[in-house]
Design goal:
The complex is a heterodimer of chains A (112) and B (114). Chain A is mostly beta strands. Chain A has no helices and 11 strands. Chain B is mainly beta and 114 residues long. Chain B has no helices and 11 strands. Chain B has strands spanning 4-7, 10-14, 19-25, 32-38, 44-51, 56-59, 62-67, 72-77, 86-93, 102-104, 108-113. Chain B is globular, with a radius of gyration of 14 Å. In chain B, 35% of the residues are buried. The chains are: A mainly beta (112), B mainly beta (114). Chains A and B meet through strand 5, strand 9 and strand 10 of A and strand 4, strand 5, strand 9 and strand 10 of B.
Amino acid sequence: KAGVTQTPRYLIKTRGQQVTLSCSPISGHRSVSWYQQTPGQGLQFLFEYFSETQRNKGNFPGRFSGRQFSNSRSEMNVSTLELGDSALYLCASSLGQGVGYTFGSGTRLTVV
Amino acid sequence: KQEVTQIPAALSVPEGENLVLNCSFTDSAIYNLQWFRQDPGKGLTSLLLIQSSQREQTSGRLNASLDKSSGRSTLYIAASQPGDSATYLCAVLISNSGNTPLVFGKGTRLSVIA
């Protein structure tokens, strides 16, 4: 069965621009979580969606937002990009809490 | 606040050696713990998931143990191979209520030398 698909794999953006990342979960998975990974901070939780509702949000500024569609696909948006937003953004899907998470390959965002 | 620590941050071993990676967490009230592997620039691959009621899980050459009372988990890799070289991350889930995310350690970077 297909895994978690994240697109695009790589992005280069300029400071001040905005970006949208996409995540398609494993078929049947209704929970989608987003994480930011940087060398200094490790993996930090951004937000989680379940059945189109945001259930939890991490400690990130309002420039980071997300949504989930009725087919469980999710997007995250970062507005007014800053150099510090350069990171690997990972998406994970799950059938539900407590049954383990499957991660995608990530989107590498570079802000110049 | 739950904190997860992995020591050492990096480890280099000769091929064929058995090794143990450590993960500790500050709050023993966890729902489960998951071990992941990450290759450079790639996503996370799930290795083993241990529910809080379990003591260990095994998959091939990998064995993960969980001691909730002491806030520790170990990942044992038998007969290490160069292909095992990667960063290994552990993550804990505090609750299955839907209000808590995975909390990750910063990982142990493993190099297996041929």
